[in-house]
Amino acid sequence: LMMAAAAKVVRCPFHRQLGTGNVCRGGWPTVMLHGFVSYAHEDARLCRQFLKHLIGMQDRGQVEWWSDARLNGGDLVEDDIKGAIDRSSVFLYLVSSDFNGSEFIRGKEFPWIQQRIANLAAEGKTFSTIPVFLRPCEPLIGIDDRDAVPKKNGRRLAITKHVPRDDGFLQALL
């Protein structure tokens, strides 16, 4: 997890330390954060399932999540994705071997996110990166495996290894 220092510390949606200058409300920031979900299209079904678990955060005004599922035919895909990244301060990586193998993620999306993080850090703003392991695999270089979720007994355990699978999604949120 990469973070920048800030005046006050509150907890982000995934209970990681996320500093903001805002007053905390019950452990949550008082302003809506913008989150970007990075995933491989081969994992679209798992992504949709996970996003259902995140709806409550959006309904409570805590985090507005963006994924390319919001794109429509005729949209300027790269411009829209880059714009969503540039508005975000929370980044979910839905990690799998397909995520690692995606040329678009490795060649464009991940570098755009890294640049956004560098810009936020340079401006003294806060950010959070959260690798959520959907299926067993090794993380890409630049993704900190120590903060991977979900975990079982302190070790990373991919969501697809949880029975029932919803337990894995819930563990990722704890």
Topology pattern, helix = H, strand = E: EEEHEHEHHEEEH
Beta-strand segment tally: 8
Shape: globular
Low-confidence stretches: 1-25
Q: What percentage of residues falls in helices of 4 or more residues?
A: 25-40%
Tally of contiguous helical segments? 5
Spatial gap, N to C terminus:
15 Å
Q: What's the alpha carbon Rg, rounded to whole Å?
A: 15 Å
The amount of beta strand, in percent, is 15-25%
Output the structural class.
alpha/beta
Question: For the report, how would you describe the main beta sheet?
Answer: 4 strands, parallel
How would you characterize the overall build of this protein?
There is one protein chain. With 174 residues, this protein is of the alpha/beta class. 35% of the residues lie in helices and 20% in strands. It contains 5 helices and 8 strands. A 4-stranded parallel sheet has the order 4-3-5-6, sandwiched between helices. A two-stranded antiparallel ribbon has the order 1-2. Helix 2 packs parallel to helix 4. The longest helix is centred in the middle third of the chain and has 20 residues. The protein is globular and about 40 Å long. The N terminus is likely disordered.
Give a topology summary.
Elements lengths: L7 E4 L5 E4 L12 E6 L5 H16 L3 E4 L10 H11 L2 E6 L1 H5 L1 H20 L5 E6 L17 E2 L2 E2 L8 H9 L1
Parallel strand pairs: 3-4, 3-5, 5-6
Antiparallel strand pairs: 1-2, 7-8
Helix pairs in contact: 2-4
What are the defining features of this structure?
single chain; 174 residues; alpha/beta; four-stranded parallel sheet; two-stranded antiparallel ribbon; 20% strand; globular; disordered N terminus
